[in-house]
Automatic annotation (TrEMBL), chain A:
Belongs to the ABC transporter superfamily. Keywords: ATP-binding, Nucleotide-binding, Transport. This is ATP-binding cassette domain-containing protein. Residues 4-234 form the ABC transporter domain. Coiled coil: none annotated. The keyword Nucleotide-binding applies. GO terms for molecular function: ATP binding. The keyword ATP-binding applies. The lineage of its organism: Bacteria, Pseudomonadati, Pseudomonadota, Alphaproteobacteria, Rhodobacterales.
UniProtKB/TrEMBL annotation, chain B:
This is Carbohydrate ABC transporter permease. The lineage of its organism: Bacteria, Pseudomonadati, Pseudomonadota, Alphaproteobacteria, Rhodobacterales. Keywords: Cell membrane, Membrane, Transmembrane, Transmembrane helix, Transport. Belongs to the binding-protein-dependent transport system permease family. It comes from Roseinatronobacter alkalisoli. Residues 73-264 form the ABC transmembrane type-1 domain.
Length: 333, 278
C-alpha cells in the first residue's frame, strides 16, 4: 500500500509563500511526476512529503495517517537525490544497507536484501567499492538501490537524472520505468524536464509559483491543457502562441503546436520569413518570423529544404488550436 | 605556453618559496645549533656550526637536571591536547548547528560567537582570575584548559561554520531518511567531510596555546602545574641569563609541536570527500 494525500498543504519561509494550498491524491502504485519551472516549489513539496521540511499548514497523509510530525525515517519512504548523496566513507554494500542496519534488521537479512537489489540494478561486481570509485551512472544506481532495499510505501525522486549525460539519462529513464513496473510501488518524481514527465508519468502535476496548475495523464495535458502555462510547458518544441485578434479569432492568443501547422510556399493564413532552420534528420524545425506573432516554430516530419529569408506561409489546423483569454485561461469553444 | 617558459616560471616561483623558507627557518636553526655549543662559542661566533671544540650539551644537561622539566613538558602537552580537543569538538558542534538549523536569532548567535575573534581574551584576565579563585581552580591545569578552550572557540566556530555550510544538504537528508540521529549525522558524515578544515583550525589553535606564557603565569604558576614556557623562565634572570639552558629548552619545545603539526597536516588531504555528491 502507498497512498499519499495532500490536504491544503502550505509552506512559507518567513513572509514568502512557497507552497500555497496544494491538494493532491496519489493512488497506490501510481507514478506521479511533479513538473514545473525552477523555483515553482516542486522540490520543496517533495521534501515536505519526505519530512525534511516542516509543513506550515495543512496535512500530509500516507495511507490515511497524518504524518505532519513524523520524522522522515518513520514515514516508510525512500528518496533518491539529484546529487546521489552517497555516504563517501562507506562502500556500496554499506551505503545500501545503512538504513536497514539503523532499523535494527538482522545482518543476514540485510545482506540478502542488498544482494537482491544489487542484482536487480546490475551492481553486484561493485558492492565493495566506494562511491569515489564509481561512475555517475553507477552512483545513481546505488542511490536507487539504497531506496529499493527499504521497501518503502513511497519512492521519492528529486531530479535524479539531472547530473547524467544525455545518453545515460535516456537509459536510466527506461530503467526507472522498468523498476516501477517490476515493483509496482508508488513513485513521486520531481523534474523540470517535460520529456521525462511525459515519458514516465501515469499522472503529471504541473506546478507554478507553489500552486498546482493542472493534474492529468500526459496525453490529457497535451491534448487538453487548462491554461496557457500548461500548454506552453508540456510538449517540445514549445507551443506557438499567435496573436488572436490579428487573426480575427476569439481570445487573446491562439495556441498551436509546431506539429499542427501546415507550411506552404505560395499561400496560407500567416505570411512570414524563415529566420532559422534545424535539420534533425527525422524531422525539420523551421522558425518563421511573422509580425505581430513573433517567432513561429513549425515542425515538419522528414527532411525539408528551406533557406533563411525564404518567404513562407503557415496555416494552423484550427481543430487542434487552443484559445486563451487575457488571464491565460483556456476559453471553451 | 612553451615548456621552456613553464620551467622558467616554476623555477622562479620555487626560488621565492625557497628564499622565504630559509628566512623563516633561519632563527629556528640558530636556536638549535647554538643550543649545542658552549657558552663562550655562543657569544663569540653565534652563526657557526658547533665544531669539535665548541660542541657542548651543557644546556641540555642543565635543563634535564633542573628539577621538573619532564613534568613541564607533560603539563604543556596535556593542556594543549585537551584544549584542542574541546575547541574542535565544541567549535564543530556550534558550527554545525549554526549552518544546519534555521532558528530565531541564528545570525545574532553567529555574530556573538565570532565576537571573541576581535576581543583579546587577556582583557578579561582579572575577571578570569577572580572566577578561578572562586571556583577553586587556581593552580590546576583545568583552569588553563578552560581558558584556552574559550580563547580558541571563536575562530574555530567562524571557520568551521563556513565549511559546514558546504556539506551537502542532500547527504544529511539521505542520512535522516535512513534514520540516523542528528548526532550520528554530525559525527559520521559532517565531521569527516570537514576534516581539512578541522586540521587547519587545530594548527591555528595549537601554536598560541603551546607558546602562551601569560595565563600559566597568572592562573597556574605552582610547581606542579608549570608549563614548558613558564618553566623555561627560570633560566632568564634579570642580570644573568643561562643561554645554554634557554636555547636547549626551546629546542626541546619545538619537537612536540612538530609532531602535532605532522599529525594534522596529514589530515589536510582532501581525497575522502570525492564522490560523495555529483
Amino acid at each position: 500500500m502507498g497512498n499519499l494525500t495532500l490536504d491544503k498543504v502550505c509552506k512559507s519561509f518567513g513572509t514568502v509563500d512557497v507552497i500555497r494550498e496544494v491538494d493532491l491524491a496519489v493512488n497506490d502504485g501510481e507514478f506521479c511526476v511533479f513538473v514545473g519551472p525552477s523555483g515553482c516549489g516542486k522540490s520543496t513539496l517533495l521534501r515536505m512529503i519526505a519530512g525534511l521540511e516542516d509543513i506550515t499548514s495543512g496535512e500530509v497523509k500516507i495511507d490515511g495517517t497524518v504524518v505532519n510530525t513524523t520524522p522522515p525515517s518513520q514515514r516508510e519512504i525512500a528518496m533518491v537525490f539529484q546529487s546521489y548523496a552517497l555516504y563517501p566513507h562507506l562502500n556500496v554494500r554499506d551505503n545500501m544497507g545503512l538504513g536497514l542496519k539503523q532499523a535494527g534488521q538482522p545482518r543476514a537479512q540485510i545482506a540478502q536484501t542488498v544482494e537482491r537489489a544489487a542484482h536487480m540494478l546490475d551492481l553486484e561486481s561493485y558492492l565493495n567499492r566506494r562511491p569515489a570509485e564509481l561512475s555517475g551512472g553507477q552512483r545513481q544506481r546505488v542511490a536507487i538501490g539504497r531506496a529499493i532495499v527499504r521497501k518503502p510505501k513511497l519512492f521519492l525522486f528529486d531530479e535524479p537524472l539531472s547530473n547524467l549525460d544525455a545518453a545515460l539519462r535516456v537509459q536510466t529513464r527506461i530503467e526507472i520505468a522498468n523498476l516501477h513496473r517490476e515493483l509496482g510501488a508508488t513513485m513521486i518524481y520531481v523534474t523540470h524536464d517535460q520529456v521525462e514527465a511525459m515519458t514516465l508519468a501515469d499522472r503529471i502535476v504541473v506546478l507554478r509559483d507553489g500552486r498546482i496548475e493542472q493534474v492529468g495523464a500526459p496525453m490529457e495535458l497535451y491534448k487538453n491543457p487548462a491554461n496557457e502555462f500548461v500548454a506552453g510547458f508540456i510538449g517540445s518544441p514549445k507551443m506557438n502562441f499567435l496573436d488572436a485578434p490579428a487573426l480575427g479569432v476569439a481570445g487573446k492568443s491562439l495556441g498551436i503546436r509546431p506539429e499542427h501547422l501546415a507550411l506552404s510556399r505560395d499561400a496560407g493564413m500567416i505570411e512570414g520569413r524563415v529566420s532559422h532552420v534545424e535539420q534533425l534528420g527525422g524531422e525539420t524545425l523551421i522558425y518563421l518570423r511573422a509580425d505581430p506573432h513573433g517567432l513561429i516554430t513549425v515542425r515538419l516530419f522528414g527532411e525539408h529544404a528551406a533557406e533563411v529569408n525564404d518567404r513562407a506561409f503557415v496555416t494552423p489546423d484550427m481543430a487542434r488550436a487552443f484559445h486563451f483569454g487575457a488571464d491565460g485561461q483556456r476559453l471553451s469553444m | 605556453m612553451s615548456a621552456r617558459a613553464n620551467i622558467l616560471r616554476s623555477s622562479f616561483a620555487h626560488a621565492i618559496l625557497i628564499a622565504y623558507t630559509i628566512l623563516a627557518l633561519y632563527p629556528v636553526l640558530l636556536i638549535v645549533i647554538n643550543s649545542m655549543k658552549s657558552r663562550r662559542a655562543i657569544f663569540n661566533d653565534p652563526l657557526s656550526l658547533p665544531t669539535r671544540e665548541t660542541f657542548d650539551l651543557v644546556g641540555f644537561h642543565t635543563v634535564l637536571e633542573q628539577g621538573n622539566f619532564l613534568l613541564y613538558f607533560q603539563n604543556s602537552m596535556v593542556v594543549t591536547v585537551a584544549s584542542l580537543f574541546f575547541v574542535l569538538l565544541f567549535g564543530a558542534m556550534a558550527a554545525f548547528a549554526l549552518a544546519e538549523y534555521r532558528f530565531r536569532g541564528n545570525l545574532l548567535m553567529a555574530l556573538y560567537l565570532a565576537l571573541g575573534i576581535m576581543i583579546p581574551i587577556r582583557l578579561g584576565t582579572v575577571a578570569i582570575l577572580e572566577i578561578m579563585v572562586a571556583a577553586n581552580l587556581v593552580n590546576t591545569l583545568t583552569a588553563l584548559v578552560l581558558v584556552y578552550t574559550a580563547q580558541g572557540l571563536p575562530l574555530a566556530v567562524f571557520i568551521l561554520s563556513e565549511f559546514m555550510r558546504q556539506v551537502s544538504d542532500d547527504l544529511k537528508n539521505a542520512a535522516r531518511i535512513d534514520g540516523l540521529s542528528e548526532y550520528r549525522i554530525f559525527f559520521t558524515i559532517a565531521l569527516p567531510l570537514v576534516r581539512p578544515a578541522l586540521a587547519t583550525v587545530a594548527v591555528f589553535t595549537m601554536i598560541p596555546i603551546w607558546n602562551d606564557l601569560w595565563f600559566p603565569l597568572i592562573l597556574a604558576p605552582g610547581e606542579s602545574t608549570k608549563t614548558l614556557t613558564l618553566g623555561s623562565q627560570i633560566f632568564l634572570g634579570q642580570y644573568v641569563t643561562n643561554w645554554n639552558a634557554v636555547l636547549a629548552a626551546l629546542t626541546l619545545a619545538i619537537f612536540p609541536v612538530i609532531v602535532l603539526y605532522l599529525i594534522f597536516s596529514r589530515q589536510l588531504i582532501r581525497g575522502i570527500t570525492k564522490g560523495a555528491v555529483k
